[in-house]
Amino acid sequence: MASHSPHLRSLSILLILVIITLLFSNHALRYVSNPNTPFFSTQLPSNVNNGSDRRLESLIPLHRRHHIHVKRAVSPEFQCLVAKGKKYWEEAVLPAFAGQSRYPTPDFGTEEEDPLEESGWTEEDELRPSPPEWNEVLEKTEGKVPRSDVHHISLSQYGEFENERGVQKPTEAVYWGWFIPENDMVIMYLTASPTYQLGQGGVADADIPARLPRMHQLSDLIWLSWEGVVENPGSLRYYAAQGVKNQASADLIKSILQARRGTTDVPWERRVTFDLSSEEGMALFGCPNGIAVNWLLIHHAAELGRRGPRVTIYNKAELGTDGVMMVWDMVPVGKQGSFGDVEG
Would you give the DSSP letter of residue 90? Predict the structure, then answer.
């Protein structure tokens, strides 16, 4: 018997390992078949109920199964962004569509006041030829590639301003973008926000809010500039972020492209599109570069109406960090998405 004991111990250890592996695999398989099965402790609370009209959820086909691809690594960071996107959608966007928003539209002042100037912003609006690198996208919108010049708007925060804490120095924030009424589209390609610039300048995170101008959110600045170039601001449908630099957003986009296309070098022709019935769509909705779309829908639901957001991502790798692209199609009710079928 003594001669067999080492073999018995080895078999016992092997059996224990097999049991542990089977238990973990069973849990993982339940997660794959049911995204509501806890995997990490980053899920959205199940008791979210804000009195919004739940019928508005038909804007995205939630009856479709969520497909969790085994080849995609499930990370806590990804799940956190999914949860954040869900919270924005369920707790803020849907109530806004139902006229029950807890987040009032910012006060942009009267016609006699200039909220941009009061916050130290300078706006320059120049007519320039339509950016040719966006022709392939513009052709898919309900308009055509503009034949006439389009609005190139630059916003710079280089003026002193006054907030609740007194007179503040400029944040040196800069936003540049194309505003194209013919295509109901805004394309932002330089977004150095006040928060980012203050942080780069050495201001501690806890001190940044006291240094911000009243008008500092990208969504507010986009809306004010859009109002200046169109007769009907509610026509805004497409928002694009060109050359996504935010690390969390860029990493998310590249990881999704890698999982779906097997590479991060994905040109427009191989683009990937999601709606909010997918975890990828929700994660992109909750990432830093999706926030502008959230707040446009929340603050301007009265003008925009109910929308079913879709997001298209691709990456022109030859452009380096300037090639990571995110294009949002805020699809009006009753219309089709512009950039192809969504991924299952």
Answer: I
Which pairs count as long-range contacts for 144-148, CB under 8 Å and 24+ apart, including other chains? 144/182, 144/183, 146/180, 146/182, 146/183, 148/182
How many angstroms separate the CA atoms of 17 and 80, rounded? 31
SS3 180: strand
CA angle 174, 253, 183 (to 5 degrees): 60
Q: pTM here?
A: 0.79
Half-sphere exposure of 272 (CA within 13 A, CB side): 24
Residue recorded with tokens 């130290």? 120
CA 280 to chain centre: 11
Neighbours of 11 (CB within 10 A): 11
pLDDT tens digits in sequence order for the chain, 344 residues long: 444 555 556 656 656 554 544 443 443 333 323 333 222 222 323 333 333 333 333 444 433 333 333 234 468 899 999 999 999 999 999 999 999 999 988 877 666 678 899 999 999 999 999 999 999 999 999 888 998 899 999 999 999 999 989 999 999 999 999 999 999 999 999 999 999 999 999 999 999 999 999 999 999 999 999 999 999 999 999 999 999 999 999 999 999 999 999 999 999 999 999 999 999 999 999 999 999 999 999 999 999 999 999 999 999 988 888 899 999 999 999 999 999 999 87
First to last CA, the chain: 58
Secondary structure element (H or E) that encloses residue 166, with its range: strand 166-168
DSSP string, 211-240: G--SS--HHHHHHHHHHTT-S-GGG--EEE
Cβ–Cβ under 8 Å, residues 184 and 205: no
